[in-house]
Specification:
Helices cover 43% and strands 12% of the residues. By secondary structure, the chain is an alpha/beta fold. Strands 1-2-6-5-4-3-7-8-9 form a nine-stranded mixed β-sheet, with helices on both faces. A two-stranded antiparallel sheet has the order 10-11. The model is unreliable at 46-53 (pLDDT under 50).
Length: 355
C-alpha cells in the first residue's frame, strides 16, 4: 500500500472493521475502486457480514483516538510496523491492532510460532516450557495464540526467560479470551505484544480462530507443533505455514497419547521436521545461512551501546549511557535503532540484547 491520505487511512480502518478476517479480494477491490467506494459497499452488507456490528465511518477517528489513549495502535499494510511477511498470505490482514512496547515488524523478523493442544498433557507442557524458554532466552520471539494448554505454556516460558512473546488473538485486543487469561495477556502486553486483525470489542467466534491461525503461521519464520490431535487448530496452523513456505516442525510424542496423534502424523507424512529442543529449532530455521553480522552498517556508538547490553536481565538507559559516555537522549536513540534492527529489546526494567 502506497502512502494514503489521513481520510483514506480512516476509511481503510473502517473497511477492516466491517470485513471478516480472511475475506478474499478486498485489497484488489480497494486498488480498483478506491477506499471510499469500497467502504460504501461494505457498509451496505447485511449485519451478519460485519465484524463488530455496523460502524459509522465518522466514528473511526474517535475509536482510534480512544484506543490510542488505552495504549492500542493500529497499523495498515505498507506502514512501518506492518510485518512484510504477512503479505505472503493470499488474504493478508487489512489492519492490525497492537498493544505492547515492542515493534511488531522487528520482533517478527526473529520469531517462532509454538502451538498445540488446549488439553495438553504434562509431557507437552514440560516440552513446551523447555523449548519456548530456550528460544526466548536466545532472543527469539515466541508467537502463539494465548489459548489454554500449549499456547499458555509457551507464553509463560518466554516471560519466565525475560524474552519477547507475541499473542495473536481471535478477538479484539481489549477482550480477555479466555477470561482466565486476563492476567497473562496483561503481562504479555506489558513486555511483549498482543495483536489482532479484529477491531476492539470483537468477540471470539469459531471461524475467527482459523483466520487467526493463518496470521500466526505467516508472522513467524517457522511453526513448532508440540501436541495436537489429528484434526486440530494447531495442525491447521502447520498446514498454512507449509503453504506459504515456512519451516514446519513437530515434537514427537508417545504413540499411546491421542494428544500427540497429530504431531506424530505430521512427522510420519514428512510434513514436519522432528525437534526436541530450541537449538534444533534454530538450526532448522537458520539452515545454511551465514550467521548475520549484527554490527554491519551500525554507527560506532550504536555498536558500543549494543555491546554494553546484557543477554539476560536488563540495563537502564542511564546506566548504559554512563558506560558508553554519551548523553541519555543519544543513548535512547541508538537503543531505538537497535530495537528496529532486531538486536535489542525493551523490558520493564530496562534494555537487553535480543539478537
Amino acid at each position: 500500500m502506497s502512502e494514503i491520505s489521513s481520510s483514506d487511512r480512516m476509511r481503510a480502518i473502517a473497511i477492516a472493521c466491517l470485513v471478516e478476517p480472511g475475506t478474499a479480494g478486498i485489497a484488489e477491490l480497494i486498488a480498483e475502486r478506491g477506499h471510499e467506494e469500497v467502504l460504501g459497499l461494505c457498509s451496505a452488507r447485511p449485519r451478519g457480514a460485519h465484524v463488530a456490528g455496523r460502524i459509522d465511518s465518522d466514528d473511526v477517528p474517535r475509536m482510534v483516538a480512544e484506543m490510542s489513549r488505552r495504549g492500542v495502535r493500529v497499523v495498515l499494510p505498507g506502514e512501518t510496523e506492518y510485518p512484510g511477511q504477512l503479505l505472503d498470505l493470499p488474504e493478508p490482514p487489512l489492519a492490525l491492532w497492537i498493544k505492547g512496547p515492542l515493534d511488531l515488524r522487528a520482533t517478527a523478523l526473529r520469531s517462532v510460532a509454538v502451538v498445540g493442544a488446549r488439553a495438553c498433557t504434562p509431557y507437552g507442557e514440560r516440552a513446551t516450557a523447555q523449548l519456548a524458554g530456550g528460544l526466548a532466552g536466545d532472543g527469539w520471539a515466541v508467537v502463539s495464540g494465548g489459548a489454554f494448554g500449549i499456547d499458555a505454556a509457551a507464553h509463560r516460558a518466554a516471560l519466565g526467560a525475560d524474552g519477547p512473546t507475541v499473542a495473536v488473538l481471535a478477538c479484539g485486543v481489549d477482550v480477555a479470551y479466555p477470561r482466565a487469561h486476563d492476567a497473562l495477556l496483561c503481562r504479555i502486553a506489558d513486555s511483549g505484544i498482543v495483536v489482532s486483525e479484529l477491531p476492539p470489542g470483537s468477540q471470539p467466534l469459531k471461524h475467527r480462530f482459523l483466520a487467526r491461525n493463518r496470521v500466526i503461521a505467516a508472522l513467524s519464520r517457522g511453526t513448532v507443533v508440540v501436541e495436537a490431535a489429528r484434526r486440530s487448530g494447531a495442525v491447521a496452523t502447520a498446514t498454512r505455514a507449509l503453504e506459504i513456505g515456512r519451516v514446519v516442525m513437530a515434537v514427537p510424542g508417545p504413540i499411546t497419547s491421542m494428544a500427540s496423534a497429530g504431531t506424530n502424523r505430521l512427522l510420519h507424512e514428512q510434513v514436519a521436521r522432528a525437534v526436541t529442543d530450541s537449538s534444533e529449532v534454530v538450526a532448522l530455521l537458520l539452515g545454511d545461512e551465514p550467521v548475520p553480522q549484527p554490527h554491519a552498517g551500525l554507527p560506532a556508538e550504536a555498536v558500543r551501546v549494543l555491546e554494553s547490553l546484557p543477554h539476560s536481565g536488563a540495563r537502564r538507559v542511564e546506566s548504559v549511557a554512563q558506560e558508553v559516555s554519551i548523553g541519555e537522549a543519544a543513548c535512547l536513540a541508538y537503543l531505538g535503532l537497535l530495537e528496529v534492527s532486531g538486536l535489542a529489546g525493551r523490558r520493564a526494567t530496562g534494555w537487553r540484547r535480543t539478537g
